[in-house]
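Why does this matter for the project? Reviewers at the last site visit asked to see concrete outputs rather than summary tables. In response, this paragraph embeds two records directly. Each consists of the residue sequence and, immediately after it, the corresponding structure tokens. Nothing has been edited or filtered.
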Amino acid sequence: MIPAVNIIAKPIGPVCNLNCTYCFYLEKEKLFGDKETFRMSDEVLETYIRQTIESQAAPTVEFIWQGGEPTLLGVDYFRKVVRLEQKYARGKTIMNAFQTNGVLIDDEWAKFFKENNFLVGVSLDGPEELHNRYRLTKNGQGTFHLVMRGIEFLKKHQVEFNTLTSVQRENAYHALEVYRFLKKEGSPYMQFIPIVERISEQPYEAGLNLLPPYAKASVSVTDWSVEPKQYGIFLSEIFDEWVRNDVGKYFIQIFDVALEAWYGMQPSICIFRETCGEALAIEHNGDLYSCDHYVFPENKLGNIMKVPLEKLVTSEQQIKFGNDKRDTLPKYCRECEYRFICNGGCPKDRIIKTPDGEDGLNYLCEGYKYFFGHIDLYMRFMANELRNQRPPANVMAWAREKDRGFPSLKVKPNDPCPCGSGKKYKQCCGRNLKR
């Protein structure tokens, strides 16, 4: 038996009905033959579902369906998925998460999601102009209205959904516009995923152009990748509005994970954990890879039709892959005050050098430091509320009081600042107040 792992299943492989500029997965078709049928067969599907349920000790097993674009397989394919899950459940609770571009969602899909309690994630990069910058159809047309139509079907059938927003070069400069739009459209759960990709001057192995961090080819960061500091500014601007008005109303993944870390817990998402290796990817043909972002020939663990899933997940290759995140962390990161939350970030983004010339610094380091420094006092307050069994949402009133210089406390200029920074009041929250 293995502990709970997250395996992103790609039953249609990299096939998609869109041609998003920044998509790193479309080119994975090159890993397979020209005559490849990109559809997980009934045999592979049943084997995957059975082995996943049987191999996990946890009472709840979650399946994550992605692509490519999984709706291209049709609703009946996922009705079959549910039947197989029920066949092998044996008393365990089965959960399903479904990531989609939303374009093909209609009444039938939405009704199916509702009846089977699927959590649906929809890719949405903000208002029309920002969304359509990179999220395009095969003939280069914007997809905004198609996605919004799909979301309306989800709302009609009261399907629980969240939004996944790719933070790229363009929308990173419009944080509040993006955030307020997502709130207006009724997204209670939001993920803001930074786009960072390296492109090679010469094709990599199997003809791939977007490369892993360990590739030695001549590469450059793509012009659609988010700028490091701007990612931190983007998150901070949203945080400032959220922490004063929206705590407990809207849930933003990176804010929740940050609170876990400030509370003393291990961050729950892989990019911020000390080690990784618990978020794998399975292709349509049964090939299992170390990670969704490491679908490269050298990161293939094997095929579940030949080697049991449990054996592949616990293989030396996968254990080393997960431990390398910790073991290759540069000294600069090991000594960083934010290591407890960051742990060097996602290994795929460790593509630059530290100030002292060591390899392996995260491309987003500057942005992460900006953001973590910005939220520190608020996170300390919320963590303290949790420890004292009080709601973290109390931070909203505290933040507004802080903005006014804590008038109810009648603080003197040389008193310690009530915000907990360790500075004198006149050098901190009282610095910019009119006397």
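We now turn to the second protein, recorded in exactly the same manner.
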Amino acid sequence: MNLSNLWLLVVPPVAGAVIGYFTNDLAIKMLFRPYKPIYIAKRQLPLTPGLIPRNQERLAKRIADTIMGSLLTPTELQRLARRLLAPEQVQGAILWLLTLALNQVRLDKEQKTAKILAAILRDFLGDSLPRILKVLARREDFLEPQLNQIFDQILLEFELNEQQARNLSNWILQVALPPDVLRQVLIDLLTDRNIQIIDEGFREKTTGTYWVVANLFGLRNALTRVRAYCLDEKEATNARLEELIISLGTREHLREWLQELSLQNLPVLTVRQLRKTMAHAVRSYIQERGGDLLQEFSRSVDWERVAVLIINRLRESETMNTSLELISQELALVLERYLEEDLERLVARIIPILSIDEVIVERVKATSPQQLELSIQGIVRNELQAIVNLGGILGFVIGVLQTIVLLLK
């Protein structure tokens, strides 16, 4: 076999392998390149840009449709949401948020939280609560159980002890009804008309010895002289009244009376009427003046200072720190119950809001052809190289077949 015949046998396999290898490699590269259209004499050359850059928008739409139609279906999104919103994970997230919020409150040097809390308290107690009370006070059963409980457990069983009765009797005789006040009451009582009524009544309704005294001496002159003495001799009258109070043991009698004073000693019907009257009086007061009272009280309170005290107490409260986990657990359970009922409807509302398909389209369209090529090659580099190698092998096999045909001829 001479050299020319050997050349004819070797060239077909080698040429087929080279052509198959580089043809596949060129075809794969033409999927991405050139990245931009090429113009000659203002005419765009065919096959420029590459297949993928030229159809990038349509490719983006196809990818989005494929993902939303096959991968991220509503059912799959619900399953994913249940996995993401598992009670343990939700509890951890809520606990983290609560801890973060508590730390933020602790680090709040400008007292922003206190100002917000003060505004809330001021609005609630000075504006919202009065309106609510005016509406609720119109109901006949407003605060009825609470008022009845207060009456039955506190007022009905309330009794003064010895020290309280002594202090109250001292206050009555020294502050409420001192001798000077008693003297003035006596003067106001002994008017001419009252003296006449007392004298006439004493004359008409007494009998026996008292009738003789009443008709012979009468009470008019005596009562008139008592009134004149009270008016002219103020200091002496006060002294006589003070002596009279001491000699009669008024202080001790008043103390004993106050100590024995109790609603339980009254008849049952009277007690029931008192309870009903008290409830009606409280409701009427709240309905008429409760709102104004709360507004005046709200204006008199330094709410910022109150808010600062509340927040400082919360900062130092161990109960608050230990309750965060329990609060997060309860909130997670509430969220879980809500999701069990409305997760499907919630996902159906979220999908249009998120516009996942539009996000995918925009991301694919915003990716440059170079980045797209690198991304695809990074995923299927071995597979693409295998295609190139397969082209070389197929070309080599065809070349070998051609050499066999030539040998057979």
